[in-house]
């Protein structure tokens, strides 16, 4: 049985890893095809103490940003323009959003308004 896994695992890696780097195309209900980003096009922002780290990120359209609360207090990630609001994120919680349009998006923590960040999408 162990020999089977020695063959199967490398084979799966060869087949699945290149697919993850490309993205996934899918048709929505209207018949339009959209490409959704995969793990290869994701960026993580850590919420630590009273700061977003990094404070500013620059990404390409279609990139998913994931905010992860690594601190001990609850925080939010809330767009100043109203595009998103994570709600309260307790320690260990995460929130994700895919940016489909170019622009500069400023955000803050509604619980601690001095915590600010920026996403620049090109």
Structural account:
The protein has 122 residues and is an alpha+beta fold. The chain has two domains: 2-35, no CATH class; 37-121, Sandwich (Immunoglobulin-like), CATH 2.60.40. The protein is built from one helix and ten strands, in the order αββββββββββ. It has one helix at residues 2-22, and strands at residues 24-27, 33-36, 42-48, 51-53, 56-59, 63-69, 78-79, 94-99, 103-108, 116-121. The strands form three sheets. A four-stranded mixed β-sheet has the order 4-3-6-8, with no helix packed on it. Strands 5-10-9-7 form a four-stranded mixed β-sheet, with no helix packed on it. A two-stranded antiparallel sheet has the order 1-2. A hairpin with a 5-residue loop joins β1 (24-27) and β2. The chain starts with a helix and ends with a strand. 15% of the residues are buried.
Walk me through the topology:
Elements (H helix, E strand, L loop, with lengths): L1 H21 L1 E4 L5 E4 L5 E7 L2 E3 L2 E4 L3 E7 L8 E2 L14 E6 L3 E6 L7 E6 L1
Parallel strand pairs: 3-6, 5-10
Antiparallel strand pairs: 1-2, 3-4, 6-8, 7-9, 9-10
